[in-house]
Amino acid sequence: MPKPLNIGMIGYGFMGRTHSNAYRKVNNFFDLGHKPVLKACCARSEDKAKAFADQWGYESIETDWRKLIERKDIDVIDIGSPNNTHFEIATAAAEAGKMILCEKPLAMNVAEAQKMVETVKKAGVPNMVWFNYRRVPAISLAKQIVDEGRIGRPFHYRATYLQDWTIAEDVPQGGAALWRLDAAVAGSGVTGDLLAHSIDTAYWLNGPITEVTAATETFVKERVHQETGKKEAVKIDDACMFLAKFANGSIGTFESTRYARGRKNYNTFELDGEAGSVFFNLEDPQLLSFFEYRNPEGQKTPSHLTGWRDIHVTNSEHPYMDKWWVPGCTIGYEHTFINALADFIGGLDKGEPVKPDFEDALYTQKVCDAVLESAKDGQWKKIG
Ligand code: SOE
Question: Tens digits of per-residue pLDDT, 22-75?
């Protein structure tokens, strides 16, 4: 019989929904020693909290996150609220001895993230950041392929993360749905929101970045702020491109924008090495493209058989897939959160930490801050 794991969910937006869905489903598919119990959800508006609790099955509501953290019947604080709330909530939750599952990006900047790492370490509380894309089976398979030595010496890493939902000039900034456009709430634009994902994936697959140089652009300079009703300067980066040098000697390019007409959630990477290459595109999430030039035993693929192969990542031998349907049946976006949660609970069962944790997310924050710093003067910045 799994032990109850009492969840206190803060936030009721897109991420509140993805996380709540994971809590509800995880034990239906994974054999785990703990089972999430949806104890309480928290939102400033009582009506919104009630509606969210009814929709997802939370037993109770709070309208003040501090009260939620004080509750003895809560084991895990899930932070799915906007970025400018993460620091205060995570610090209080860790000091109260709660486990923490935090949305990305971890913080508004490195100074906050650094303190958050120190606080969770001092408190000794299990923690994880919801960089869910590590749990796309095809991306986990790419990691396996890299670890098996099938890429060999890496030369190039190429990431893009493109969307198009902010092109219209009349999209406002601020408020419940559009806080991602408000620098005071989001911290940054595509760098923290989208490139943070790309950096986390790159870190996992290709190791740390040591230096970056970047350029950013803000295409629409003023937007109406939903709270003041007035036009205000837009202070986020609408687009960001950066060059990177990795500790392993490879070099990388990263590009992100919310102005790529037709691109909705085009999150891709390619890693090119001496022995082979891998390519992934989130808009075809069940596929991993792999080119093998030489296998880890040193044998070259015969020339007449070389070519990119699209691996349909749905076999039970593929990461996570034995937990889902029969081979050939795909899983989707929401399952990446369920897979992530299963890893977190699996770690809890064994008493082992699970990645990506606050420390990994601090590293991503360091890269994001260096990218934004470099965009100001165009100079290369070292990752501290
Ligand atoms: C932005 O549009 C967004 O919702 C990000 O905030 C998420 O992290 C990403 O996974 C999908 O796009």
Answer: 999 999 999 999 999 999 999 999 999 999 999 999 999 999 999 999 999 999
The interface pTM score, or ipTM, of the predicted complex is 0.98
SS (H, E, C) 183-215: HHHHCCCHHHHHHHHHHHHHHHHHCCEEEEEEE
Query: How far does the centroid of ligand 1 lie from the alpha carbon of residue 231, in Å?
Result: 25
Distance 136 CA to ligand 1 centre (A): 15
Coil, strand or helix: which one is 52?
helix
Q: Residue 177: pLDDT above 90? A: no
pTM of the predicted protein model: 0.98
The answer to whether the CB of 210 is under 6 A from ligand 1 is no
- Structural domains of the chain, ranges and CATH numbers in brackets: 3-132 (3.40.50.720), 134-354+362-377 (3.30.360.10)
Number of the ligand 1 atom closest to the C-alpha atom of 193: 6
CB count within 10 Å of CB 28 equals 8
Q: Which of the 8 DSSP states describes residue 248? A: T
